[in-house]
Amino acid sequence: MHNPDITSDTPPGLAPDGTPAVSTMTSGTASSGFPAVPAAPAVLTSPAPARAGRRAAGGKGAAGLAAPPEHTPEHAPGLAPGLSSGLVAEFSPELSAGEVLAPYLHARAADFLRGLRLHTESGADTAGAEEAARTLRAAARRISGTLHTFRPLLDAAWADQLRTELAWLSGTLALEHACTSRLVRLLDALSRLAGDGTGHAGPGGVPAARAGDGARGLTVGAARAGALLERQLTLARTRAHSAALQALGSSRFHAVADAVALLASEVPLGPAGAARATEVLRAPATVVEHRLLDQVGVLPLSRAAHPYNAEALALAAGEAQDAPWHQTRSLLRLHRYAGEVVHGTAEQDPVLREAGRALDQHRDAAEAAGAAAAAARTPRIAPATAYALGVLHADQRHEVEAARFAFQRAWSRTAAPAVS
Length: 420
What we know:
The protein is built from eleven helices and no strands. By secondary structure, the chain is an all-alpha fold. It is globular and about 70 Å long.
């Protein structure tokens, strides 16, 4: 199931040779589900914000925004305490929706500008540049997610344009980090699977010296497999680093930075932004919550509840079976950002946080398995190398299965069963 409105920072996948898949998009819809991003630098405009204080809030001020209907999917767990009750917030009757939403966006815009300043000051400091990129990505994700969720309260054209540009920036900056973490994950897994040559480890915990022909074959191929992965993913990381530097120096990025700088002081609101927060602010957040519950309802949680169910290892389904789980991860993130707006705090229910970590692990393992499979398709590699990559792919798919099991356990503690 794919939804084009989901905001995600998942970077594009790798090509079979391990390099970032690059495509030129000029119209239509991008493969990631976002609207296609124009190749030319975008000119972001910030229309004059609709001042909440200039309008009388109340009554029909919600511009047609009604509270969503009661929703308890019959195929999903019921509304969880960490979900629906978490969106019930007390606002002062005098506050408009814009007066609640604007401070959050101001703060996230300030975070973005701080990350930009850190990047400028980092120079040759690699650690400083990584921290700056991490700050920029986090701020861009939160701004983009908030613009998506609370679009009915904002100037729609401005919100859509800025959200698209922030998705481009976040995805571009995430590529280098994704390649680095993927390489570390795969090399660590290879080392664990093949052992260090001293008999301390081996498949299934059997010492490598006594694990039989399969273990000897894995030990022989692991070194070459690791070298192949390092070569491919290092090349991909280098290209991603160059792309990030090029993006940060482009006129398109400067247009985004200018728009975010304006956002730090002014938020372009739509007519509904002048209505009372108590009347309209909870409705968009609840819509995201319902979408999350619906999406969880399509996951095979009953099967995931059984460890070693081998569903994640089914080759016939391919990587497409991961898509609903990735969609759930994106929706859970949107739900978390909506909660930050409504409550004015970044605190999250610990069980939901655990579920989010499980989905992060799911995404990382699935993409690592894809990288191992892509490396195994390299022409003219030795059979021992292909064997090691096959074992590595299976190991990461087992990690995918474990992450689904962990999410199911966390979710079962978060949501009570629906009452018929």
